[in-house]
Amino acid sequence: MSKGLIEVILLLSGVIVVAAAWLFLKRPLALLAWGTRRSLIATGLKKQVVQTPAGAQTVFVGGTGPVLVLLHGAGDHAGTWAQAAKALAKDHTLVIPDLAGHGDSAPATGPIDTAQIYAGIEATLTSQTPGQAVTLVGNSLGAWMALVVAQRHPDWVAKVVAVNGGPLLGASTQVRLLPTNRAEARATMAQLRDASSPAIPDHVLDDLVRVTQTGPLARFAATAMTMGPWLLTEDQLRELRTPVRLVWGTSDELMPLAYAQRMVAALPDVALIPIERCGHVPQQEAPTRFLAALRQALDATPQ
Predict the structure, then answer these.
(1) 65-99 pLDDT, tens digit each
(2) Distance between CA atoms of 45 and 77, rounded to whole angstroms?
(3) Does domain 35-299 have CATH number 3.40.50.1240?
(4) Is-above-0.90 flag for pTM?
(5) Is 210 exposed, middle or buried (0-12, 13-18, 19+ CB in 10 A)?
(6) Which of 67, 81, 226, 235 has the most CB atoms less than 10 A away?
(7) What pLDDT does residue 26 have?
(8) pLDDT-derived band at 4, boundaries 50, 70, 90
(9) How buried is residue 290: exposed, middle or buried, by Cβ count under 10 Å (0-12/13-18/19+)?
């Protein structure tokens, strides 16, 4: 190998190291997203595109066995399920979309309306699981949408597993979901996670502030005035015949345990599976305990 070629390789290696260090310090959330989405591919899922009224939607599909459709929360993306997918794909066929306006799914800019998110899910189910009654697992916004699908298309849904989310009005308004500085971001994450969970580094909090100001969460929040028709009432939940299992991080201050208990009181076929010392996004904060709770929810016999 010539001296010149060695120098070029060393130069390129240095550039890569510098770029990686910059990403780690300045764009850690983008680096995390890249890693989790690559993990879905490494698990054996294939990245597909589904055409929907909301535009082209990205969906990760793979595995073998009964179908599980995994729906993430507002501001998140399909990669949030990466750790669970490694285990679930061994005995389930997974369908994991980026909800409309999130991840690689359209629309890429502008406000994200609840109607667009629902239309994207509906079209994904029509495309990927036609004629099947599948299990919908949703976190936060994903849980809300899963229960709306079950209410509108009961023949499409065999079971709903709602993870720290639902369609009732009443989430806490005390949690600042769009922090404007590091201190606010730290306070927000303290409300969304258990106090015993590892502290989030300052550079990650700074990136969280940057992302939330213009990212999908802010774009979704901008349409808050149009969300009302998509909410369900306790009376509507009482009419729902789909089995529902609630997997709940009990330290969540955005969707506290009292919110889950309201759904328990209304739903005809329901069980609550709490995850202690865990907050709003259990699949990330406590992946091993979340997977155990999810398995319990999937195996629970309908009442």
Answers:
(1) 999 999 999 999 999 999 999 999 999 999 999 99
(2) 15
(3) no
(4) yes
(5) middle
(6) 81
(7) 72
(8) low
(9) buried
Instruction: Give residue 228's identity as a one-letter amino acid code.
Output: G
Coil, helix or strand at residue 193: coil
DSSP category for residue 34: H
Report which of 88, 97, 90 is spatially closest to residue 37, judged by C-alpha positions.
97
**What does the domain layout of the chain look like in residue ranges?**
35-299
Encoded amino acid at 54, one letter: A
> Is 204 exposed, middle or buried (CB count within 10 Å of its CB: 0-12, 13-18, 19+)?
middle
15: confidence class by pLDDT, cuts 50, 70, 90: very low
Peptide bond into 107 cis (omega under 30): yes
SS (HEC) of 233-300: CHHHHHCCCCCEEEEEECCCCCCCHHHHHHHHHHCCCEEEEEECCCCCCHHHHCHHHHHHHHHHHHHC
CB atoms within 10 A of CB 256: 18
CA separation for the pair 150, 246 (Å, rounded): 15
| Gap between the Cα atoms of 138 and 160, Å rounded | 8
